[in-house]
Amino acid sequence: MARPDYDQEARRLFALLNLPQTGAASAESAAAHGYHDLDAIWQHPTTGARVYIGNSTASGTREILQRHNITRIVNCTSNMANTFEGRDPSIVYFRFDIYKFFSMLDLRTHQGVLEFFLPVFNWIDTAVASGSNVLIHCLAGAHRAGTTGVAYSMH
After folding, report:
1. How many C-beta atoms lie closer than 10 Å to residue 62's C-beta?
2. Measured on CA atoms in the order 140, 63, 95, 71, is the torsion positive or negative?
3. Structure confidence by residue, pLDDT tens digits, 9-47
4. What angle do CA 133, 146, 11 make, to 5 degrees?
5. Residue 107: what pLDDT?
6. Of 53, 138, 150, nearest to 98 (Cα)?
7. How far apart are CA 81 and CA 34, in angstroms?
8. Could you please report the per-residue DSSP string of 95-151?
9. Residue range 106-118: average pLDDT?
10. Which single residue of 51, 57, 66, 109 has CA 20 to 30 Å from 93?
């Protein structure tokens, strides 16, 4: 089975929504399509920490991260840099390479699916339990990050 090209799908989405090539959201994209750079999907019942799904603009813009008090980032790509890694010790990254797991694990069983997601679920659980907000991102925040975020919210 051929490996899907999620970056190509993201670029198609950007074109469909009339976004710039970077995929950065705008007031127009929010009003017309409900597309934002990031959206909160879950809040911890005790600490109040939030989990967000977002795009590359959110993950690479310090002001967006600060505005939402995000200090933990799940990078769901195999090719995007962790923008602040090694430059800002307050931001901690977890690389959840969906391509790697897609090819290495048996996803036809419940056990295989659990093995696939358990490392990222545990990392996010630890972060939000300690009060840290988490951003789960990919290029568009729609495919890899969307899948990971929805799976986490069901967890």
Report:
1. 11
2. negative
3. 888 888 888 888 888 998 988 898 898 999 999 999 999
4. 115
5. 67
6. 138
7. 27
8. E--HHHHHHHS-TTSHHHHHHHHHHHHHHHHHHHHTT-EEEEE-SSSSSHHHHHHHH
9. 79
10. 109
How far is the C-alpha of 16 from the C-alpha of 25, rounded, in Å? 13
Q: Which two structure tokens, joined as six digits, stand for 111?
A: 């056990």
Mapped onto helix, strand or coil, the DSSP state of residue 2 is: coil
DSSP 70: E
Q: Which helix (H) or strand (E) holds 64?
A: helix 62-67
Residue environment code for 6-25, b if the CB has 16+ CB neighbours within 10 A, otherwise e: bbebbbebbeebebeeebbb
- Give the C-alpha separation, 85 to 55, whole Å: 17
Q: Which amino acid would we find at residue 7? A: D
> H helices then E strands: how many in the chain?
7, 5
Provide the token pair at 139: 């290029």
Q: Report which secondary-structure segment, H or E, holds 59.
A: helix 56-60
